[in-house]
Amino acid sequence: MSPLVKIRSERDQMSAVERRIADFIVENAQLLRDYSSQQLANALGISQSSVVKFTQKLGFKGYPDLKYSIGEAIARAAPGETATVSPTQETASSGLADRLWRRKCAAEEETRVINAPEAIQAVAEAIDRAGRSGRVFLLGMGDDDVLVRTFALRLATLGILAVHSFDMVRMTSNVAAAQAGDVLVVISEFGQHAALGKIARQFRERRGQLVTLTRHTANPLRTLADLSLVVSAHDEQPYIQPLLYQSAMQHLLDGLFVRLCEGHDDRRRQLLGNLERIQHILEP
């Protein structure tokens, strides 16, 4: 994994000091060769030992090893590294739309590398099983509910009818009817909302399988999950960060949908038949 992608993807798990080091390295990656560990520490007003511990925590032997690895990544000019220049440089070299696109690409790449293919496959298989012999429940609040509704519609085209609602009272009633073999998929950016946690606990009491999709942070909802997928998306601008989260989460859900399509001929036939019927209805 590219060291810069690794740093960005692990940022949400870092302490405040570690995040300062991470942000400095990412924003000044091309200049890092001119910094010793002491100079980097002085620039941030922290101890040199903090820099060394940071590099070792990432799996490098020391700061020189990290610096060399980043230099190699920049020399290879991997696609994932094109978004590592500073905001000032970005504004000077490209338009706002191009800059946003590159940041979204970086968030999607970080999200991809922190979710093992086996974990994504396990979630897809759980949804597929529940769609055949049980029920799939979907839950999200606010902007996450938009993602839930879109995913529910896509599941429906595959013949998987999902029970979903943004109304917590109604969803509580729905979950009360859950049985073993059912799956509840909860999408929650921060995984902190008390109502979501209560419904998740109620669902597990019914012996259902809980799947959560949240940010790559330790949160109460994620600790309850039987299966969990995570998103890495951060930006110093408060109006950019939610856009990166939405984009990365949508990309993750799209990946689940594709896995449900591929390798299941009956699902694919159902999809094609439904798309044809939908097109017939929409025709004048």
Automatic annotation (TrEMBL):
<feature type="domain" description="HTH rpiR-type">
    <location>
        <begin position="1"/>
        <end position="77"/>
    </location>
</feature>
<dbReference type="InterPro" id="IPR035472">
    <property type="entry name" value="RpiR-like_SIS"/>
</dbReference>
<dbReference type="InterPro" id="IPR009057">
    <property type="entry name" value="Homeodomain-like_sf"/>
</dbReference>
<dbReference type="Pfam" id="PF01418">
    <property type="entry name" value="HTH_6"/>
</dbReference>
<dbReference type="InterPro" id="IPR036388">
    <property type="entry name" value="WH-like_DNA-bd_sf"/>
</dbReference>
<protein>
    <submittedName>
        <fullName>MurR/RpiR family transcriptional regulator</fullName>
    </submittedName>
</protein>
<dbReference type="Pfam" id="PF01380">
    <property type="entry name" value="SIS"/>
</dbReference>
<keyword id="KW-0804">Transcription</keyword>
<dbReference type="InterPro" id="IPR046348">
    <property type="entry name" value="SIS_dom_sf"/>
</dbReference>
<keyword id="KW-0238">DNA-binding</keyword>
<keyword id="KW-0805">Transcription regulation</keyword>
<dbReference type="InterPro" id="IPR000281">
    <property type="entry name" value="HTH_RpiR"/>
</dbReference>
<dbReference type="InterPro" id="IPR047640">
    <property type="entry name" value="RpiR-like"/>
</dbReference>
<feature type="domain" description="SIS">
    <location>
        <begin position="123"/>
        <end position="262"/>
    </location>
</feature>
<dbReference type="InterPro" id="IPR001347">
    <property type="entry name" value="SIS_dom"/>
</dbReference>
